[in-house]
Amino acid sequence: MGRKLDLSKLTDEEAKHVWEVVQRDFDLRKKEEERLEELKCKIDQESSKREFLTSQSHLNETHCVHCLQPFKFLLNSKRQCLDCHFYTCKNCSRYNKKEQGWVCDPCRLSRIVKIGSLEWYYEHVRSRFKRFGSAKVLQSLYGRLQPGQGLNSAFLDSLIPHV
After folding, report:
1. Which of 30, 76, 93, 162 has CA 20 to 30 A from 105's CA?
2. First to last CA, the chain
3. How deeply is 11 buried, as exposed, middle or buried, from its count of CB atoms within 10 A (0-12, 13-18, 19+)?
């Protein structure tokens, strides 16, 4: 993976097709980043709300920290989240079979963001390689493409991760 990528043997048509695929890859990555950013905003909002509500005198002992519905013995019993340890109702949490416990919706969203962002992976790859994946293909093809195809070097530099 450390070697230079040689795509010079591709025909112009093949190179254009690869270029389009890589462009779609970048578009999908951007959409996924936007989706994860929205989830992060929701998590931050819920976290602020939760922080305020739990500071109120023992509110979480009697009410769900998310929907504020009162706990009732059989109708709406309280469940403690495995991650944040706050009490939630059945509607605001999901049972995790693997961990054999309840996880509230905001904590579940937080888990999705951690898994979806793969930040730990990309940071590791960036630290080992200057260019990788689609950025490496883009850099290799960039020299072959004609300037009239709507791409400039500033755009390419913005797509290629630098160390």
Report:
1. 30
2. 16
3. exposed
